[in-house]
TrEMBL record:
This is WD repeat-containing protein 19. It comes from Mesocestoides corti (Flatworm). GO terms for biological process: cilium assembly; intraciliary retrograde transport. GO terms for cellular component: cilium; intraciliary transport particle A. Residues 397-435 are annotated as: Disordered.
């Protein structure tokens, strides 16, 4: 038998591990070389898509087991449906964000539906076996693989809340967005709490965008939404309220600015105010202004509900008439209207067509604020059958009866303020993910 020259450059494998392997079916074990599969990716690729039996896959797994290649041993034990062996080998692969070992272990647990294996993987993810806490997104994927979608959604919210409490708002936003997309792609209804948390985080992202581009009215309205839920942003209470007061005064929402200036001057926040603004805020609180007709007009600006055509305040995300949740524009944070709707070509989140065109004309390199994909003028179309699209969008969201919904009421300045910092879990604990 002809062998490649480099065969003799490496130690021979034990006979029981290699040459005694069966030559069955159309999967010829003798095609394998005892060189490192990691440096020879062709070895693994030769085996994908082949109509091999479980016994053949087991033989390949034993070969890699003898080479102490835990990744490929685990992979082929998985193909052989020997899930316990697959998981044990895959969890021995050194942890790396780029390694597929954990994804394969999760796939094995999902197929096995075995409680012991599930707990083994959870313990590994929590760092109980090696002291290294793994990327929490793997826990979400584990529940998805087990088809425990409620637990997956709850885990997503806990993970994002931890990032949010630590002030990592972009990370929290991107985590929730990716998990929402994964649920949608699997045809699973997204819980209202996930969507509400995402909308609040997205409002924060948008507020920064509109401050930068000089759209101060939109920025002020978005900051009011955030300030009404300030406990969700415990790491930046004072900076957010400061920005809210400043942006409100720029667009003559002075009574609203007074509301948040008063909050800033509470004893727990007063000493943390930037000295550049502290005296100004004290003056605002000493000389409060009543709501002007201009301010009330701005706060009560309304547009039609896309479902029942009832007038709804622009920044209200539910209709008091038809009780529908209203999708929001990912450019402005307003609820969408049916005659001015488009979707991001990449993530399918709704946008105001006219606002998007304006952004693209002023910023040719503009990206979607939700998914960060580049947007191009020739890919954007105003939707003719917008109601059907929005009904389909809402069909992908779970009913909110059992969910704690985030307040998005923007109709006035006398809304109940959220002054207390929620005590969210500092981390995802094993008890939280097992029950």
């Amino acid at each position: 038998m002809t062998r490649r020259a480099n065969y003799f450059d490496r130690p021979r494998l034990p006979v029981r591990c290699f040459w005694s392997m069966p030559r069955q079916g159309n999967l010829q074990v003798s095609t394998l070389k005892p060189s490192s599969p990691m440096s020879k990716p062709g070895i693994g690729s030769q085996l994908f898509g082949m109509d091999a039996s479980s016994q053949e896959y087991k033989s390949i797994a034993v070969h890699f087991e003898c080479e102490r290649n835990f990744l490929l041993a685990g992979k082929f034990f998985l193909y052989a449906k020997q899930y316990a062996k697959a998981v044990r080998h895959l969890l021995r692969v050194p942890y790396s964000d780029s390694s597929p070992a954990l994804d394969l272990a999760i796939e094995a647990v999902g197929e096995a539906k075995d409680k012991k294996l599930t707990h083994m993987v959870i313990a590994y993810l929590m760092g109980e076996t090696d002291g290294i806490a793994k990327d929490p997104r793997y826990l979400f994927r584990l529940y998805m693989a087990l088809q425990q979608y409620r637990e997956a959604a709850r885990t997503a919210v806990i993970i994002a809340r931890e990032e949010q409490n630590n002030g990592n708002y972009r990370n929290a936003h991107d985590l929730l967005f990716s998990m929402v997309q994964e649920l949608r792609q699997c045809g699973i209804k997204v819980p209202a709490e996930m969507l509400d948390n995402l909308s609040l985080l997205h409002s924060y992202i948008l507020a920064k965008l509109h401050i930068k581009t000089g759209n101060h009215l939109i920025a002020a309205r978005l900051l009011i939404r955030i300030a009404q839920n300030i406990s969700k942003f415990p790491s930046h209470i004072v900076p957010i309220l400061t920005s809210t007061v400043i942006e409100c005064h720029k667009v003559n929402l002075k009574h609203t600015g007074f509301t948040y200036a008063s909050m800033l001057l509470h004893p727990e926040h007063r000493d943390k105010i930037d000295q550049r603004y502290r005296r100004k805020f004290e003056g605002i609180v000493r000389r409060p202004e009543k709501p002007s007709s201009e301010e009330m007009e701005l706060l009560n600006a309304a547009s039609e509900c896309p479902f029942c055509s009832t007038s709804v305040p622009d920044y209200e995300l539910s209709c008091g008439s038809c009780r529908a949740s209203l999708p929001y524009c990912t450019l402005t944070g307003k609820h969408v209207v049916k005659n001015d709707l488009t979707l991001c070509p990449n993530c399918d989140f709704p946008m105001s067509y006219s606002n998007l065109i304006t952004f693209l004309e002023n910023q040719p390199d503009f990206v979607c604020p939700m998914c960060s994909a580049p947007l191009f003028r020739d890919e954007v179309r105003c939707l003719a059958d917008a109601v059907e699209v929005l009904l389909s969008w809402n069909a992908g969201s779970a009913d909110p009866e059992d969910d704690t919904r985030t307040s998005t009421n923007m109709t006035g300045v006398n809304s109940k303020q959220d002054n207390n910092v929620d005590k969210a879990p500092a981390s995802v604990t094993k008890d939280q993910v097992l029950h």
